[in-house]
Design a protein that fits this description.
- This protein has one helix at residues 11-62, and strands at 66-70, 74-80, 86-88, 93-94, 99-101, 109-112, 124-131, 139-145.
- It is of the alpha+beta class.
- The chain has a single domain, classed as minor pseudopilin epsh fold (3-Layer(bab) Sandwich).
- The strands form two sheets. Strands 1, 2, 3, 4 and 6 form a five-stranded antiparallel β-sheet that branches. A three-stranded antiparallel β-sheet has the order 5-7-8, covered by helices on one side.
- The longest helix has 52 residues, at 11-62.
- It is rod-shaped, with a radius of gyration of 26 Å.
- 18% of the residues are buried.
């Protein structure tokens, strides 16, 4: 008498496959978290650089002193006219979620003159952007040259 063998997987084989799947999902999650963190920081740096460049260009093209005010997670660009009247140059821009200006590092304000220089003359402004609530947080430092107004 021959016994028929049933085809299929044993419980042990199924558990081994599930364990491998969970390990791969965990590794993928860690890798994706790193990518998301990097994109937030990259977006913040691009955002700050474009706001500063826009403010400088406005100062040059309009012949007006232009200010960029920094708060912990946003930037406001405005021009100040004779008589003290101020006018927004652009809408307020915010840093991506989880990113902020480094405490004590961001100047309260960057001022561009109509010739494209800053009010600091030969000095420069330093703006540091950092991640919040993250161990081993990344930070990026941008410098605004006082003589040329260029953002590095």
């Amino acid at each position: 008498m021959t016994t028929a063998r049933k085809s299929g997987f044993t419980l042990l084989e199924l558990l081994a496959v599930m364990l491998i799947m969970f390990l791969l999902m965990g590794i993928g999650t860690v890798a994706m978290t790193g990518l998301v963190r990097g994109s937030g920081m990259s977006g913040a740096v691009t955002n700050v650089r474009s706001v500063l460049t826009q403010a400088r260009q406005y100062a040059i093209t309009q012949g007006q002193v232009t200010y960029v005010d920094f708060s912990p997670n946003s930037m406001r660009v405005y021009a100040r006219y004779r008589g003290g009247r101020t006018e927004p140059v652009a809408t307020e821009r915010f840093l991506p979620s989880g990113i902020q200006f480094a405490e004590g590092e961001a100047p309260a304000q960057v001022v561009f003159r109509p010739d494209g220089t800053t009010e600091r003359g030969t000095g420069h402004y330093t703006v540091e952007v950092e991640e919040m609530y993250v161990a081993n947080a990344q930070s990026v430092t941008l410098e605004v040259d006082g003589l040329t107004g260029w953002v590095h």
